[in-house]
């Protein structure tokens, strides 16, 4: 805790708020009876309050990396720092109560009610009943489930999406600073997944956790991540960068191939409409605002292009939360602007 | 005399034997279940360790115990009772011991199966939330395995109700006394009635156990996993 050296990433460990929340230093994992490591000499720093997506093909070591962070898998070498504290040797159960954990199969306890599931960690930490009850209701509200309706239900009475909301609430129960999520939305249908993504980002805006999130879906990684770590076979880090960086400046052939074609289109997700200078809506001339296809200001350029193609038009109106038009976006200006923004590789 | 009037005249005796039968089986099942479940819990504790050698030893012990108890179940009841005589003498002690031995396999097998069939993702999330081994066992594994374990106890009880009748040969308490008396004086008055009433009495005892277990199941199986 007291050391003020710099870690391998050149980030000063001095000031607590700038110190990364999770640091992996030369972490390797070789499973018994295997010669090739699943994760090899990995250095990774996860900034406080940000979402880092661990992406890569199957068998690349991304899940192993995640599970080493809460010591479900013990690293063979290296050390792991949580908020500056070396946790490689501490009591694993105590450690895990400080780290939220969400898995793809959810793993709710079928014989516990929704409320009891969420209360598991607070109960182990010895909170009093009143406080636990309040916290359960608060979390159910947070994940969009009405406490009165859902608190006393059993997991089997919930849909897949609702179960995963409870899974997230359970992981958040004792307000851990760190959340580890292993493909949490992997088994959920695309429509529900989209909605859960939006809610997840909304929740993150309020709770500001440090989140490590494993996925094999690059689309999901781009949408949710502040940073993306792309793993290559043998547990090596191919690139660790922002989504924009990954898409526009792939560090090597592996990343370029993994990102694949369509990077330019994917990048459209990253440009919020609110950051663009929109055209004024020409009053008097046709088409008028009322006749235009509209997209919300909170959306991305991707949504705007999608709306254009869908309606076979070259102009959309951008509207704010109240439905008031704030400007128009035209196909031609869009293409020019994107070039101006210098986003091409 | 027809069986009905025989029963009417001897209702006190029959009830007494029936009660004995019930109690002797209850004792044996309680003892056998405690041993089997305790053992199963020990060898089924979700290892989660990376000590492969320990897992291997525990697995070997578990399989060994299943083989031994299965073998015990195949020993003819008459033979086992006689074999136990030198140790416990005539009467209830030998009977309860034999019935306990016969209940072990069924309860052990179901307990091991129930405890190991708990969904891996449930155990992983329990571990990921910071539950230690013992807490995982008590909070998660055992309650989820309980319906399967209870079924094992039920089947073991049926087996024991039948075998308890044979124990009359070593002066074991219960309805076997009626059957045995009837058998030894076959042809005499009411001999057949005694055998018939003794046999039907066993059915009644089994039925009482079934009702008992239905109530236990209702009271102990958590609502979230009730079928």
Strand content of chain A: 15-25%
Low-confidence stretches of chain B: none
**Biggest chain-to-chain interface with counts:** A-B, 31 and 24 residues
Unreliable parts of chain A: 1-13
Q: What is the chain-wise order of helices and strands of chain B?
A: HHHHHHHHH
Main beta sheet of chain B? none
**Into which percent range does the helicity of residues of chain A fall?**
25-40%
* CATH-derived architecture of the domain at 22-98 and 177-268 in chain A: 3-Layer(aba) Sandwich
Distance from first to last alpha carbon of chain A: 41 Å
* Mean pLDDT rating of chain A: 87
C-alpha end-to-end distance of chain B: 48 Å
Shape of chain B: elongated
| Percent range for β-strand residues of chain B | under 5%
- Can you tell me the CATH class of chain B? Mainly Alpha
Using only CA atoms, what is the Rg of chain A? Answer: 22 Å
What is the CATH T-level topology of the domain at 22-98 and 177-268 in chain A? Rossmann fold
CATH superfamily of the domain at 22-98 and 177-268 in chain A: P-loop containing nucleotide triphosphate hydrolases
Overview of this structure, please?
The complex is a heterodimer of chains A (345) and B (227). Chain A is α/β, with parallel strands linked by helices and 345 residues long. Among the domains of chain A are: 169 residues, Rossmann fold; 69 residues, CBS-domain, CATH 3.10.580. Chain A has 14 helices and 13 strands. In chain A, the strands form three sheets. Chain A has a six-stranded mixed beta sheet with strand order 6-7-8-3-9-10, with helices on both faces. In chain A, helix 5 crosses helix 7. Chain B is mostly helical. Chain B has a single domain, classed as MetI-like (MetI-like fold), CATH 1.10.3720. Helix content of chain B is 81%, strand content 0%. Chain B is built from nine helices and no strands. In chain B, helix 5 runs antiparallel to helix 7. The longest helix of chain B has 34 residues. The radius of gyration of chain B is 21 Å and the shape is elongated. At the A-B interface, helix 2, helix 4 and helix 7 of A face helix 6 and helix 7 of B.
């Amino acid at each position: 805790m007291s050391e003020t050296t710099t870690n391998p990433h050149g980030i000063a460990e001095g000031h607590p708020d700038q110190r990364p929340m999770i640091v992996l230093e030369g972490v390797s994992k070789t499973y018994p009876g295997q010669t090739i490591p699943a994760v090899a000499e990995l250095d990774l720093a996860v900034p406080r309050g940000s979402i880092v997506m661990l992406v890569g093909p199957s068998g690349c070591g991304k899940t192993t990396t995640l599970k080493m962070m809460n010591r479900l898998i013990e690293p063979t070498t290296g050390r792991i720092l949580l908020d500056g504290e070396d946790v490689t040797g501490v009591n694993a159960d105590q450690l895990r109560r400080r780290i939220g954990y969400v898995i793809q199969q959810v793993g709710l306890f079928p014989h516990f009610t929704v409320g009891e599931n969420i209360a598991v960690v607070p109960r182990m930490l010895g909170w009093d009943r009143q406080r636990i009850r309040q916290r359960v209701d608060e979390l159910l509200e947070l994940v969009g489930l009405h406490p009165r309706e859902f608190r006393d239900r059993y997991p089997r009475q919930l849909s897949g999406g609702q179960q995963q909301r409870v899974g997230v609430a359970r992981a958040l129960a004792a307000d851990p600073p760190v959340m580890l999520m292993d493909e949490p939305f992997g088994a959920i249908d695309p429509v529900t997944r989209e909605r859960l993504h939006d809610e997840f980002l909304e929740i993150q805006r309020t709770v500001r956790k440090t989140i490590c999130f494993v996925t094999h879906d690059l689309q999901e990684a781009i949408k949710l991540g502040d940073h993306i770590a792309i793993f290559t076979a043998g547990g090596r880090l191919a690139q660790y960068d922002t989504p924009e960086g990954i898409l526009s400046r792939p560090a090597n052939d592996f990343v370029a191939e993994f990102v694949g074609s369509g990077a330019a289109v994917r990048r459209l997700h990253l440009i919020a409409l609110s950051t663009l200078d929109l055209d004024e809506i020409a009053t008097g001339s046709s088409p008028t605002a009322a006749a235009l296809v509209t997209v919300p200001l909170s959306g991305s350029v991707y949504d705007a292009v999608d709306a254009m193609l869908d309606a076979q038009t070259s102009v959309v109106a951008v509207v704010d939360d109240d439905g008031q038009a704030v400007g128009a976006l035209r196909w031609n200006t869009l293409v020019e602007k994107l070039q101006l923004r210098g986003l091409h590789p | 005399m027809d069986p009905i009037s025989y029963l009417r005249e001897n209702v006190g005796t029959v009830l007494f034997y029936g009660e004995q039968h019930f109690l002797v089986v209850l004792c044996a099942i309680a003892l056998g279940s405690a041993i089997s479940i305790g053992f199963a819990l020990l060898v089924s504790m979700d290892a989660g360790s990376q000590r492969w050698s320990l897992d291997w030893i525990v697995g070997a012990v578990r399989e060994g115990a299943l083989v031994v108890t299965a073998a015990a179940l195949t020993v003819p009841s008459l033979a086992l009772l006689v074999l136990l005589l030198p140790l416990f003498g005539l009467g209830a002690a030998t009977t309860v011991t034999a019935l306990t031995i016969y209940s072990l396999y069924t309860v052990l097998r179901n307990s091991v199966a129930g405890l190991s069939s708990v969904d891996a993702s449930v155990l992983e999330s329990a571990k990921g939330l910071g539950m230690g081994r013992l807490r995982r066992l008590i909070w998660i594994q055992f309650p989820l395995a309980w319906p399967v374990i209870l079924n094992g106890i039920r089947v073991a009880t049926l087996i024991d109700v039948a075998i308890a009748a044979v124990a009359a040969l070593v002066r074991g308490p219960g309805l076997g006394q009626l059957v045995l008396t009837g058998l030894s004086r076959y042809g005499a008055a009411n001999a057949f009635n005694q055998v018939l009433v003794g046999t039907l009495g066993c059915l009644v005892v089994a039925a009482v156990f079934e009702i008992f277990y239905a109530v236990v199941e209702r009271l102990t199986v958590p609502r979230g996993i009730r079928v």
